[in-house]
Amino acid sequence: KSSSPSPKEPKKGILNNPKMMDNVFLLFLDQYKQTGASEWSYVLSAPNSNAYIGMGFSPNGQMVGSSAIVGWVGSDGTPAMKKYYLGGKNSNQVMPDQGNLEIGNSTIVTFSSRIYMAFQLVNTDTPDSLLIYSFGPQNQIPSPPSFRLTQHSDYVSTVLNYATGTPLQTLIFT
What we know:
Elements: H1 18-23, E1 28-36, E2 39-47, E3 53-58, E4 66-73, E5 79-86, E6 94-96, E7 103-111, E8 114-122, E9 130-135, E10 154-161, E11 166-173
Antiparallel strand pairs: 1-2, 2-8, 3-4, 3-9, 4-5, 5-6, 7-8, 9-10, 10-11
């Protein structure tokens, strides 16, 4: 029997694993704030390695069934951001321009070897508190016409307490 964890099982000893620290823990939710009665603003950042970064809002803490916003900057410097519905684990079940997120203003930029993704969720009183962050494989960004995502390199699932601003639990998956 393999000692590797299943895809749904959190890795053990993640804080002592520098390889994991390179990707997952360098992806930050830098800021979020309720900016209106039904509006929330977020800023997410990660090292810029010509990969996508994403943030999902989950009804159950899993990626499948979540809606996400994913952003990247192409090798030519062109920024892009799309919402996705994560309908399954196969690339053809991850649907661009679908999902239940209503996105207001958004931007994605690179600065000083980091990529920053800022966006607003509109027409939502309180977003799902089960959040998922993902980091795509290096040099594999979505491209037209399908904008399909390749499987993430790593992802983190977090429960965020919007009242206190602190994560209640963080699980690391790869």
